[in-house]
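$ ./design --mode recover --in tokens.txt
reading tokens...
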């Protein structure tokens, strides 16, 4: 059985829509948007939190950890420093955010 079954994703669709509407409302009132910062990143991390059962309150923290883990995404080769950074960041995911 797939980790993200159709039933799970379908059951979370209203939550995904509500998150999108909340994010859009925030920048509509400002009448401006930097799409990646104001929508794409918080939406993606919010959806991931929902899918893996984390509180949406952790989505900004998850985004920060993702940036720490990914580092320079233009490189193809992964070195030991990258592996250490990813391991450290994943361990922090299960601890209280600083």
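writing sequence...
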């Amino acid at each position: 059985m797939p980790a993200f079954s159709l039933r799970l994703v379908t059951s979370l669709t209203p939550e995904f829509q509500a998150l999108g509407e909340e994010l859009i409302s925030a920048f509509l009132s400002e009448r401006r948007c930097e799409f990646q910062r104001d929508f794409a990143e918080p939406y993606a991390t919010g959806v991931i939190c929902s899918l893996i059962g984390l509180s949406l309150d952790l989505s900004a923290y998850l985004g920060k950890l993702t940036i720490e883990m990914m580092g320079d995404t233009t490189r193809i080769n992964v070195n030991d420093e990258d592996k250490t950074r990813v391991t450290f960041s994943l361990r922090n995911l299960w601890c209280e955010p600083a």
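exit 0
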